[in-house]
Write a structure and sequence with these properties.
Layout: H1 2-15, E1 23-26, E2 33-36, H2 38-45, H3 51-58, H4 60-69, E3 73-75, H5 78-85, H6 87-93, H7 97-115, H8 119-122, H9 147-163, E4 173-175
Antiparallel strand pairs: 1-2, 3-4
Amino acid sequence: DKEVRAIFLRLFAQLFQGYRSCLQLIRIHAEPVIHFHKAAFLGQRGLIENDFLTKVLNGMAFAGFVSERGPPFRTCDLFDELVAFEVERIKAEEGNPPKMIKHVRELAEQLFKNENPNPHMAFQKVPRPTEGSHLRVHILPFPRINEGRVQELLQEGLARAQGAPPATRGDKKCVVPAGPPVGMFM
C-alpha cells in the first residue's frame, strides 16, 4: 500500500514540479487569496496543448490543493521536500529502474513512519474471544468504584501535569521552500 502511494507521490511531485513559482498571493481582502497562474505554468513547461494536465489544473481537486498548499508559511511535509529538493534525483532516476525502485521504497518507508511514529504500537492485535465465552454464567459483577481513590489519582495527575513542561506538537510551521523555477523542467 505504501509503495503504491509513494509512486503516486513521485508522479504528482513530477507533475506539479515548480508550481510554487506560479502562485500569486492577493492581499486585497482581509483574508489573503491564493491564485495559481495556469497559463504561466503550462507555458513555461511547454505543455499548453496537453489536455490531461489542463484538465487536472482546472479540476476542483487541484483548486483544493492550491488553497491548502499555497500559503507560504505552513507545516511542510514529504511532498514539499520532493518538489523542492528532489528534482535532480527524480530526473536522474528516469533511465535507471533499480534506483527508481529504491527511491520508491525509501518514500514508502517514510510514509509508514509518518503514519506510525511508534512502530511497536502499529501491529497491536486485539485477542479474539474464546469459543463459548458468550455462554458463561459465572461472570463476576463489575467492582464498585472507590470515589476517594479516584480523587487521589486525579490530584496526583494534576500535580504532575503542573510541574511538567507544556506538551508541544511535532508539526512546526516554516516557510515552504519554493524549489526550482518551472522553466527548468523543459
